[in-house]
Write a sequence for this structure.
């Protein structure tokens, strides 16, 4: 079952302002199979920008919260927080459009 979180988590931006980080990734038109970030020790924050069509979850960040639950987070122009130690991936989108 997939659930959709159409808004960023409450209080996320306040937490991000106080967040200390050791790495920053900037990608362009990124697409990857489900993976985990084994070196993560705390939540990661994600935001996507560009002219890609985000309707119906296209280009969203998907996180497998359990074997039967995938959360779809719309990240276009929104800051979200996830635990990268859970399998996650970017949902398909029109590759002719820009996505950062």
């Amino acid at each position: 079952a997939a659930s959709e979180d159409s808004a960023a988590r409450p209080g996320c931006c306040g937490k991000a302002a106080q967040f200390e980080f050791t790495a920053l990734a900037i990608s362009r038109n990124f697409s990857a199979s489900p993976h985990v970030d084994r070196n993560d020790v705390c939540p990661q924050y994600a935001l996507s920008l560009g002219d890609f069509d985000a309707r119906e979850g296209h280009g969203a960040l998907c996180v497998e919260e359990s074997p039967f639950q995938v959360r779809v987070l719309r990240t276009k122009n929104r800051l979200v927080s996830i635990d990268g130690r859970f399998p996650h991936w970017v949902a398909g989108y029109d590759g002719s459009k820009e996505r950062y």
About this structure: Residues 6 and 31 are 21 Å apart (CA to CA). The chain has a mean pLDDT of 81.
